[in-house]
Amino acid sequence: MTVTMDDIREAAAVLDGEVIRTPTVHSPSLSVLTGAEVFLKLETLQRTGSFKDRGSLVKLKSLDAEQSSHGVIAISAGNHAQGVAYHAQRLGIPATIVMPEGTPFTKIRRTREFGAEVILHGDSVNTAEPFANGLAAERRLTIVHPYNVPKIIAGQGTIGLEILVDVPDLDTIIVPVGGGGIISGIAIAAKHLNPAVEIVGVEAELYPSMYNKLHGLEPPVGGASLADGISIKSPGALTLAIVRELAADLLIVSEAEIETAVQTMLTTGRSVAEGAGATPLAALCANPDRFAGKQVCLVVTGANIDARLLASALMRGLARAGHMARLRISLTDQTGNLAKVTGEIARAGGNIVEIFHQRMFYDVPLKLAEVDAVVETRDDSHAQEIISRLEAAGFPTRRLLDTNRQG
To answer: Does 308 lie in the same domain as 334?
Structure first.
């Protein structure tokens, strides 16, 4: 069982006019930030918000009439689920999707909106697999595996075809790795068209499954990763063999690096990326010397991030960059003092985003109060300037580094 360039070209013919031919765009801002010439392959523009539209449709179109009438079943944390559900609905094929119980609400809702029956089971894609296999046998459903199937790999490989048409002389393509379907397909296509191009995979630190297999390691994997789309405990045998042969390297990125990359993709790259989709940028930012001066394509695999998580990542990013400070200010509990505090902050050029005046529950003397203020600042030195001004006005102030009371 293998995948060839001919398979990928056949998949491209199947997909022609059926999915979006996404652009590979140069990003001047990310190029300045990283020191590489950065291109973004924006699979975020697909109908379901991720590259999974490709392999899902290729696999579904390969089914015979009997298989189509009985329906299909897929296991997914979200993007594969949406790809299968959307195209199954288009083709009139009943779809059942088994999703881990911790799947983001956004992905569950969108999958159901595409007409699929969604069943929540297990804590990961891998633990849900035996349950889904049993359901497939019971209902006579065809399993649409998310990565370890030639048709799926061939479909994802069409991304590599498009990238090399757009930027033929690329030095490196950086691809998120979960089960290995997308990096396998891209590697086959890209290395065929340009043998010199380097294929680099990137995994989340909590789920370095492919890395572990390649290096004969068996440490435990798991945890709540922002990159839930690549939170896979075990890669496929087919994808493992392809990655072993064609990938130049696998890089590991931390949760903090993924979170920062999500923020940077939006604020600097002007593109929304979910955690998995931001991992190529995380890898690039964590290894600037390795890619300096090279033409690098980041495959932005998906944009299906929960709005609450995205908002939280942005706000935490502002705090890390020194553009947001949380201050605890002590004052006597008398008329006019709160107004004086806000006045001093305003005169120092700070913008109060949130303020909480607490008299009753803090461990302070009866005639005193404490105010927690979240203040927008230019940078860390500006925050310190505001603190100094408040203290000079008679209001002892300290900066809180987290949401717990510092003391």
So the answer is: no
For residues 14-42, one letter each, b for 16 or more C-beta atoms within 10 angstroms of the residue's C-beta and e for the rest, the string is bbeeebeebebbebeebeebbebbbbbbb
Q: Cα separation of 176 and 233, whole Å? A: 15
Range of the domain at 70: 1-321
Q: How many helices (H) and strands (E) does the chain have?
A: 17, 14
Sheet holding 172-176, edge to edge: 24-26, 37-42, 295-300, 172-176, 198-204, 249-253
Q: Which residues of 350-386 are buried (b: 16+ CB within 10 A; e: fewer)?
A: beeeebeeeeeeeeeeeeebbbbbbbebeeeebbebb
Clarify whether residues 57 and 183 are in a common domain: yes
Cβ proximity of 205 and 252 under 8 Å: yes
> Rounded distance, CA 297 to CA 162, Å?
12
Q: What is the pLDDT of residues 35-48, one digit of tens each?
A: 999 999 999 999 99
pLDDT one-digit tens code per residue, 77-91: 779 999 999 999 999
What residue spans of 51-149 are helical by DSSP H? Answer: 52-61, 65-70, 79-91, 105-113, 125-139
